[in-house]
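Below is a complete specimen:
___
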Amino acid sequence: MSRTVHCVLLEQDAPGLAMQPYPGDLGRRIFEQVSQPAWQRWLAHQTMLINEGRLSPLNPEHRAFLEQEMEKFFFGQGSAKPEGYVPPEDEAE
């Protein structure tokens, strides 16, 4: 049976995550307060941050930066796109 959470990002009830997606207190807060659709938004945003910033998840400084951005994305004022970021053109258009 799926669980429902009141998502802090979407500000509505939505399906919750099946398991804690990140270790520690931040991961617990995300599990309790973030929905599956909001988590998918974060994954897309995180991918953009990694690609645009040429970040490596193996680098401890880069991991710390991504954790800070995750915190801001869900529980702060939001995580900004890198300066000069231009989204790719949609090939369907």
Notes: The longest helix spans residues 36-53. The CA atoms of residues 72 and 78 lie 5 Å apart. The first strand starts at residue 4 and ends at 7. Helices lie at 24-33, 36-53, 60-75.
